[in-house]
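Handoff note, outgoing to incoming analyst
You'll be picking up this chain. Sequence as last confirmed:
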Amino acid sequence: MIFRQLRTSFLPSRATMASSILLAAILSCISNVPANAVTYEFNFDDVDDGMVMAPLVGFGAVSFDGGALADGTYPMDDFSNIDISFNFSSLTSFSEMDVVTPTNEVLFVILNGGQSFNFSNTNGSPGAFGGAIDFIKDDMTFGLSTEPPGTGGNLDRYFVAAMDNSFIFFGNYEGTLVPEPSGLVLVAPILLLLLTRRKRLTAA
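Most recent structure output, in case you need it:
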């Protein structure tokens, strides 16, 4: 009888064991989750002063499969599932389907410890407008060009123009890394529930 009491007092309860097993399974899943898509958020202004400041005229994002990137220059064709979405007020928008520059010439330039993104190009005068990456709408109404010619090779310059060559927006843009939530943050509510349940069982 005494041995049975001692054994009962030192062994964890079934509920505690179940909680521990579930916790271990969750942590194991977190460690084995593959890297999600990398996303950079973009802002565009309408003043060419080397900075991106309000009022902003455009917003968007670029995402692609893979993990975080170190500073460097990467060919666009090295990435898969590239998604581009740029919106300029209620006027027009552009996606990866509107790119008219040969993608094997487009470069992704990563700076500031992986936090910043710009477009560049291996060719001096590529695309329809001669920019690093150029976009033209299917209906031939509007175009977008980054690092257009005649701007001193500044990677953060861009323009949006009507196809009659009239400028609509001309200024600077920036791409900023969107941080991914950690696995621990994602499962925090589950961990809190397990701890609360364990305390209740201990108190009982």
